[in-house]
From TrEMBL:
It holds the Pfam family FtsX. Belongs to the ABC-4 integral membrane protein family. It comes from the Bacteria. This is ABC transporter permease. The chain crosses the membrane at residues 232-257, 287-309, 329-355, 376-400, 412-434, 460-480, 685-709, 730-756, 776-798.
Length: 812
């Protein structure tokens, strides 16, 4: 039977190409997603400036968070700020056998006009020539400043003049080592040490220190690369899982349509003695041949597509450009296995019905499909609808805020699978409902389109399912994202208690803050410092793996928190205000121990318990306390509230005049809202890219399926024309069928998306309908209709080019 399968593929070019395209595209997408996951797991970040070092000694950015419960256990978590090391550790490193060079490195931002630069000490430059003096700086030649010139640099929130000692081909700025130590904001500390040693394993410096070798050295230079990998792993996992689910749909629809079109041929094989097992082996053999060829070609193009996707992520700012793309043989195996499994399952399902019919009923079954709802279909549909309903109930009863979207993706797929199981019946029912309006519009051709759809509901359902899937996935994911963004913008606007913001590229200095406080029209000023922290004693089970967001303030009136107990005016020194949702919320006056972003443990006294917006709970700390434990060391923003009766224009003029000569900028509420929206745009853009990729695959399947279904009807079209139909009437009939398929697919896709959108919107916004322009839905609908019409009419136009007698004589 396998040899027969190989022979039949030669005479089934259309079905072969359609199944090949479906399997090939599925394998390419799955391979690319698996490559992105491998890249995220590796997080390979080759060193740039530290390429000369055989090892890098850095602070330990991870720690084991001890959970205090009935069954104590630990969890590895990451700190949000750079963990610095004492400069004195260099002596211990030099004393290690095999070490020949130790260089301490500091990194801090400076700004030359509007050009941001990263500055270092001269020792780490490893360039020939004398070091710059205390009043000198070495700048990159690309800055366009010649040696000997005097420049104004923004450093630590202030403007300072330096003489340019020389220029280099490196992209960074360099100061004298003692000057850099002071300007870094953390005197006596280094970010990491570059070490030349012939035995890195001998560097045993304690559990609080990491010794990095190979590509891991780059993680010390670019700590954001580790976070990039962490974002890439769940993203690629979700996209890959969704891609596999869609691939199963698409491949199954294509193969089942191909087998259904060959029903007469397969029925004849049953009539001459072919056993059901042989028949299923033949169908499976054909499918596996197609699958092997498709995965073989995809093995070459999967990494290319994966690299392109990775490039889009890095250019969009979602992934650090310092991370190196990796795609080895494991993603290829995953893609091949997933695709062949999907092909195999689809082939078994497609051949199951044909294999079950009795030889005496074979020809009748081939000519008139009588049964579409099998017990398996019914059970799967009930289970999927039950699962989708359960996820909706969980969303409404348990989820809060934006995290409610986490149940929406699975809900879409469950509703889609359930609808696909009963799509032939829904297709026939919809055709009956629409037969009156369609016949009024298009007359006899519309009646014939309706009749064909009703009598061939199982065949038509194979084309309806991909459209339903494309419309459902696109509508659900796009409107979930627009609703999330709108809810985030609204929450930010409600929480914002400032009328203006003063920001600096290298931080806002105490001098600038003092000037802002005395500016015309200012009622209140608060520095704004953000970080993350872990409550370690007593342990809080409510905190996530990333800990709690921590907000540093000097004026509590600029926060939207509502005081439940205590007084935010006491938030000074070693104090903290806890959200009322924190499990460790105790009485005012109790103490908690925090591990701050740089790994420092601080015991703080509770001065207030506050109520905050759901899913936006934060720890409130004094700004100076929190800023000292951040990478920057200075607040980046200052929030300003206007005095009563002061309009925005007057406030802006007063702040601009007060901060003249300082490296800061003044913005209004719109500036803050725009910055918040821009942060959301990156995640939204990535979501749109992945959804577009999967929907694009589904759209290709729509065209693929419709073209295959229509092009196989050459004989049917010929008979209609011999019966008196003109070619134009046949084409209008095909257009009517395509339009009807599109309408049914859009209706079902809308139902599928509503199963995910409505519960989420009720939780996130309190409304049934999502936020976002209706034009998005109209574009989705118009695209589905246009594709269905083109894919139905164009093959019909090609099929009717031959003479009717010839078409009838040559058969299908």
């Amino acid at each position: 039977m396998f040899s027969l399968a190989l022979r039949t593929l030669r005479f089934r070019t259309g079905g072969f190409i359609a199944a090949f395209v479906a399997a090939f595209l599925g394998a390419v997408i799955v391979s690319a997603c698996a490559g992105l996951m491998e890249t995220g797991i590796r997080s390979a970040t080759p060193p740039h400036r530290l390429a000369w070092a055989s090892a890098v000694v850095a602070g330990q950015q991870d720690f084991e968070l001890q959970k205090h419960s009935d069954k104590p256990k630990t969890q590895s978590v990451s700190l949000s700020e750079r963990v610095r090391l004492d400069r004195s550790l260099a002596d211990q490193i030099r004393a290690t056998p095999g070490v020949s060079t130790v260089v301490g490195e500091v990194n801090f931002p400076v700004s030359l006009g509007k050009r941001p630069l990263t500055a270092h000490g001269w020792e780490s430059a490893r360039l020939p020539g004398p070091a710059p003096r205390a009043n000198e700086v070495v700048l990159p030649a690309a800055a366009g400043v010649s040696a000997g010139a005097t420049v104004d640099l923004a450093v630590q929130g202030t403007m300072r003049q330096y003489r340019v000692a020389r220029t280099t081909d490196q992209p960074d700025a360099f100061f004298a080592d003692d000057v850099a130590d002071q300007l870094s904001g953390h005197p006596g500390k280094v970010d990491y040490f570059g070490v030349v040693t012939d035995n890195p394993a001998a560097l045993d410096l304690g559990s609080s220190v990491s010794v990095l070798t190979g590509d891991e050295r780059g993680l010390a230079e670019f700590p954001e690369a580790q976070a990039s990998g962490g974002r890439l792993i769940p993203l690629s996992g979700v996209a890959g899982g969704l891609s596999i689910s869609v691939a199963v749909f698409v491949i199954a629809s294509t193969l089942m349509l191909s087998v259904r079109q060959r029903q007469r041929e397969l029925a004849l094989l049953r009539a001459i003695g072919t056993t059901p097992r042989q028949l299923r082996r033949m169908v499976l053999g054909e499918a596996l041949v197609i699958g092997v060829l498709a995965t073989g070609v995809a093995a070459a193009l999967g990494p290319v597509f994966g690299r392109w996707l990775f490039g889009q992520f890095t250019s969009g700012g979602f992934i650090s450009p310092t991370v190196q793309f990796h795609q080895g043989w494991i993603p290829m195996i995953i893609a091949a296995g997933a695709t062949l499994l999907a092909v195999g399952i689809s082939a078994l399902v497609a051949g199951f019905r044909v294999g079950r019919i009795r030889p005496t009923e074979a020809l009748a079954e081939a000519s008139v499909p009588r049964r579409w709802l099998t017990p398996v279909r019914l059970i799967v549909a009930i289970l999927c609808f039950g699962g989708g309903t359960a996820l909706g109930i969980v969303t409404l009863a348990v989820m809060t805020g934006p995290i409610a979207a986490s149940t929406s993706g699975p809900a879409v797929m469950l509703w889609a699978i359930g609808v696909a199981m009963i799509s032939p019946g829904v297709t026939k029912l919809t055709a009956i409902v629409l037969q009156g309006p369609l016949r009024l519009i298009s007359g006899v051709t519309g009646w014939l389109a309706i009749t064909n759809t009703r009598n061939a509901a199982t065949r038509v359902a194979g084309a309806v399912t991909p459209i339903m899937l494309a419309v459902g996935i696109a509508t659900a994911n796009i409107y979930l994202q627009t609703t999330t963004s709108a809810a985030s913008a609204q929450a930010f606007s409600e929480d914002l208690r400032a009328d203006a913001v003063v920001a600096g590229p290298t931080g806002v200095s105490p001098e600038a803050i003092d000037r802002v406080r005395h500016a015309d029209g200012v009622a209140a000023v608060s520095t704004y410092v953000s970080s993350r922290a872990f409550i370690t004693a007593p342990f809080d089970e409510n905190q996530t793996k990333k800990g709690y967001p921590a907000l540093g303030l000097t004026d509590p009136t600029t926060t939207a928190a509502t005081v439940v107990r205590g007084n935010l005016a006491d938030l000074t020194g070693d104090t903290i205000a806890l959200p009322d949702t924190a499990e460790v919320s105790r009485s005012v006056g109790d103490s908690v121990t925090l591990r701050l972003g740089d790994g420092t443990d601080r015991t703080l006294r509770i001065v207030a318990i506050v109520n905050q917006r759901a899913e936006a709970e934060q720890l409130l700390l004094p700004a100076d306390l929190l800023a000292a434990h951040t990478t920057a060391g200075l607040p980046k923003q200052v929030l300003v509230r206007a005095a009563p009766g002061v309009d925005q224009a007057r406030l802006t003029r007063g702040l601009t005049a007060a901060t003249a000569g300082l490296p800061v900028s003044v913005g209004d509420r719109n500036t803050l809202a725009a910055a918040n929206a821009k942060a959301d745009e990156t995640g939204a853009w990535v979501n749109y890219l992945l959804v577009g990729m999967i929907v694009g695959y589904t759209v290709i399947s729509v065209v693929n399926t419709l073209v295959m279904a229509t092009s196989r009807r050459r004989r049917e079209f010929g008979l209609q024309r011999l019966g008196g139909f003109t070619r134009g009437q046949v084409l209008r009939m095909a257009a009517g069928e395509g339009g009807l398929i599109a309408v049914i697919g859009v209706l079902l896709g809308t139902v599928v998306s509503a199963g995910a959108i409505v519960p989420f919107c009720l939780v996130a916004t309190g409304r049934v309908l999502p936020d976002g322009p209706v034009s998005i839905y109209l574009v989705i609908v118009a695209t589905a209709v246009a594709l269905a019409l083109i894919a139905a009419v164009l093959p019909a136009w090609v099929a009717t080019r031959t003479r009717p007698v010839t078409a009838v004589a040559t058969g299908e």
